[in-house]
Every structure is written in C-alpha cells, then in structure tokens.
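Protocol step 4 of 6: structure prediction from sequence.
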Amino acid sequence: MLIKREILERIKCGEIKLQFRRWRRRTIRPGGTLKTAVGMLQIGAITPTSADLVTDADARDAGFADRADFLRWLDMMKPGELDRIEVSYLGEDPRIALRMDTNFDNAALAQISHALDKIDSGAYPGWSRDVLALIAERPGERAEALAEAVAMEKAAFKPRVRLLKELGLTESLDTGYRLSPRGQAVFDRIAK
C-alpha cells in the first residue's frame, strides 16, 4: 500500500487515523505492519465499505477536508472494492538501527554471507556481492542504469535490492541507492 509522504507525516503525528483504498486484491492484512518512509505503521481493522457509508468524520480522519473532498478523490480512483483501513504510527523502522550497526563479529558476518548466498541462489549467482560493489562505486545512480549494468530488467532488479535493504546493507535515496554504514563494513570485509 503506497502512501504519500505528506500523509505519512500526518499519520505519524496522529492527525490521520484512517485510509481508504480501492483494489482488486488487498496487499495488507489487519494486525499487520507496513514499512514506510517515516517508520512503521500498524494496520488495524480493515472493513469493506461503500462510498455512501463514509461520514464527514471518517473523511477528516483520513485527511480529507470533508466527505465531498473524499468523494472527489474516490471518483479519480480505479474501480475496485473499497476498504476502510485503520492506521497508526508504530515506531521507527528497525532497519535504520540495523543500517548503523557496524559492530558485528565473524559469526554475524557468516550469517550475513549466508543470507547473501540465499539471495544469489538460482539464476543470479554472485549477484548480491556484485551489486554491493556496483552501489559502492555508483551511489545515487538510477536503478535502471544499475540494473542494466548487471544485465537485468529494472522490474527484477529493484525487489532484489530491497532484500539487501532488509539486511541493513543499502539505503534508498531519492534517486538510486547507497551502501549503509553496515553495508560498507560488510563490503569491506567480504571484498578482501
């Protein structure tokens, strides 16, 4: 579920408590969490609804001026089932602390190396280490150019880089990526 940065900031400060979505297939579940640019969100109840059941209060809780503003937004959305989603700010993204952790021993490095091997299994042996080297050489470069450099489609490349991000090794920038302090420390040790 994609949420604009401005809305995320308002959720973080408690000003917005609801979201509405139309979709063909839900991508979240009640009780789940969502990693976002401002931190972790808690997903509460997800209730199927219809536009005529949305009140002014619901619309305001979702960041709209009123029900009429909500209905104008809804008219611009693709068709699909409408859900009322309770959201709240849960806390900082745990990957932030992980990205900063450069104090790991050989056993932890072995675990990271094993995770990289798992990412590399299948069609792309050595991919993770090659991409760490590429990001180290070319921080901030567009994902499309990085994907091309490793002979991949951008659509296949980006989800694999997210796996490196989950390990705390990379950070997304407005354009492209960079190695995190942890990623640099790992790269320095495995590149030897």
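Step 5 (inspection) to follow. The first helix runs from residue 5 to 12.
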